Amino acid sequence: MNYRLAPEHPFPTPLHDCYAALSWLADQPDVDPARIAIGGASAGGGLATALALLAKERGEITPVLQLLAYPMLDDRTTTRTDIDERHLRLWSVKSNRFGWRSYLGPLHGGDVPPLAAPARYEDLSGLPATWIGVGTCDLFHDEDIAYAERLTQAGVDCTLHVTPGAYHGFDLVERKAAISQAFTKAQVTALAGALT
Question: Per residue in 72-87, pLDDT tens?
Fold first, then answer.
């Protein structure tokens, strides 16, 4: 199932589409709703994170795992002035500003709801086990590390996989590289462990 994309369809439409897909999946007769994992990469990782939070709020479906590859979690990163872009690739500060402006639409620059930017969500307790992977040369490194730490502090079983020297989307660009294969293997291992 596809979800409607920003900027034509800003928050909350993409998130609601994701929840509709999750509900549909959980209702299928050959699916065990207690063994559903959700995940995504980059903006998709941010949506998966928000989906887990929305599922927690609604209490209808409880995913067993969040699998998040360099998730886009915090719109406040767009206002940082201390980011050294010399080591960033594929996702820049400019790209990030455009991405958040597109996703937030009229909410951009105003009162951003926590479901729109999961790093703003206060109570992270009760979320499913989480795997977060990010590289040290990724713009999202700091916000992903901070979110992983907050999950752990909230009592959520969280595995943080940091790849030294890796940039945003490195595993998709350099699929055959040893670090990319290790990154993928770590995700598969986390998923297998959650669904066993």
Answer: 999 999 999 899 888 8
